[in-house]
Amino acid sequence: MDRGFSNARLIMFTLTLIFFTSACENAAETRATTDPSAVEKNHSPGQPSEEGKIKIGFSMDTLEEERWLRDRALFKEAVENLGAEVEIMAANEDDAKQILQAETLISQGVDLLVVVPNNAEATAAIVNKAHLAGIKVISYDRLVKNADIDMYISFDNEQVGELQAKAITELVPKGRYVLIGGASTDYNAHLLKKGVFNVLQPYIDRGDITIVYDQWTDNWTPTNAYKNMEVALKANNNHIDAVIAANDATAGGAIAALEAHGLAGKIPVSGQDAELAAAQRIVVGTQHLTIYKPLNMLAEKAAELAVKMAKGESIVADRKINNGKIEVPSVLLAPIAVDRHNIDETIIRDHFHSREDVYMVDQ
Ligand code: BGC
Fold first, then answer.
1. What does UniProt give as the signal peptide span (predicted)?
2. In ligand 1, which atom is closest to the CA atom of 247?
3. Mean pLDDT within 135-148
4. Strand order in the sheet with 136-140
5. Does the beta carbon of 65 lie inside 6 Å of ligand 1?
6. 185 and 250 in contact (C-beta within 8 Å)?
7. Where are the domains of the chain?
8. How far is the CA of 35 from the centre of ligand 1 (A)?
9. How far is the CA of 303 from the centre of ligand 1 (A)?
């Protein structure tokens, strides 16, 4: 059989499926925003809707990185497996749009709102509005700051930074480091940076490591990361020894800039998310590690908490995290560092990506 042809057909089929799914969701999104007849009657939070189902609203910031498409699908599946339903909206990294969408979800009478904030501070408005309507709010993956958020569920983001820095310092215990951060509007980027410095500070204090460039990356985009890396290379006459990039998107941008200077694969770079492109860069040697966060665990736990809280059941959280206003009951899952040595027994074993896709070989 012509493998190229069958792969092409498979890709076409997958793309058609994605377009079809997203067209349906976009249609639902448009309907929810513009057609008043589509807005369901309000009902008291915690009381099942007319169809007898608990309804969860999921307000997402972006679907830009590969991971958020997975989060969306996994969360939907997990909520539905619990006999509830979910309405999902994504705001294209636009604060005002996210607030409007959350208002729509509230007016549709969702029983509970789950939010991935674009801007950690601006989304506090969503929490206030939901609470006025008697609806509890869960922060998903990213913390909403300075708000009476009811629950926070994520991976331990400080640990993500620690794992990145630990792996890079094992390779480069002395040298000139570049830090390509995440979006400064995302509190995760700050937690991650804190984790990075937890590890780097003793090296810096000893004079072994010098931070020669340290910058946030607007919206976490590869393009902005590329520009940052270009500036870092220019400012240091290409004399850098290691790059800690906050996620795989920014790592991709940084590595493209290194590539343009013939340095890809010569300087270790970190990332986060276990995106397919990053996994491929790891096996070819241009990215040293990524941080794998098994998203099914996050989505399933969030769905379980959301449905329980929507029903008014009490929840016991493992710990509390201060968000500037209150101590938020929180559940933090453990991230896993992945490099070429353990990629098979982590992301491939878990079917996060297939072996064929990671190693770019035909089946
Ligand atoms: C998430 C990362 C993601 C980044 C950009 C962060 O808040 O924790 O997994 O790569 O946002 O979307």
1. 1-27
2. 10
3. 98
4. 85-90, 55-60, 112-115, 136-140, 151-155, 327-333, 319-322
5. yes
6. no
7. 55-149+295-333, 157-293+337-359
8. 32
9. 19
Share of the chain above pLDDT 90, in %: 84
Q: Which residue has the higher pLDDT, 314 or 40?
A: 314
- 186 alpha carbon – ligand 1 mean position (Å): 8
Over residues 67-92, the mean pLDDT reads: 98
Residue 222 backbone dihedrals phi, psi, to 5 degrees: -60, -35
pLDDT digits (tens, 9 = 90+) for 289-313: 999 999 999 999 999 999 999 999 9
Domain 157-293+337-359 grouped into CATH 3.40.50.2300: yes
Regarding beta strands 242-245 and 85-90, do their DSSP bridges make them parallel or antiparallel, or are they unpaired? unpaired
Q: Is 273 in the pocket of ligand 1 (CB under 6 A)?
A: yes
d(CA 90, CA 291): 24
Nearest atom, ligand 1, residue 249 CA: 10
Q: Considering only 31-35, 38-42, 137-141, which range has the smallest mean pLDDT?
A: 31-35
Would you say the pTM of this structure is higher than 0.90?
no
Could you tell me the two tokens for 45?
Answer: 């939070």
CA of 2 to the centre of ligand 1 (A): 38
Atom of ligand 1 lying closest to residue 188 CA: 7
Q: Does residue 190 have its Cβ closer than 6 Å to ligand 1?
A: no
Cβ 220 under 6 angstroms from ligand 1: yes
Please tell me if the CB atom of residue 188 comes closer than 6 angstroms to any atom of ligand 1.
Answer: yes
Please tell me if the domain spanning 55-149+295-333 has the same topology as the one spanning 157-293+337-359. yes
| C-alpha span between 287 and 274 (Å, rounded) | 11
Choices 3.40.50.2300, 2.60.60.30, 2.40.110.10, 3.40.50.620: CATH for 55-149+295-333: 3.40.50.2300
Is the shortest distance between the CB of 67 and ligand 1 below 6 Å? yes
- Cα 247 to ligand 1 centroid, rounded to whole Å: 7
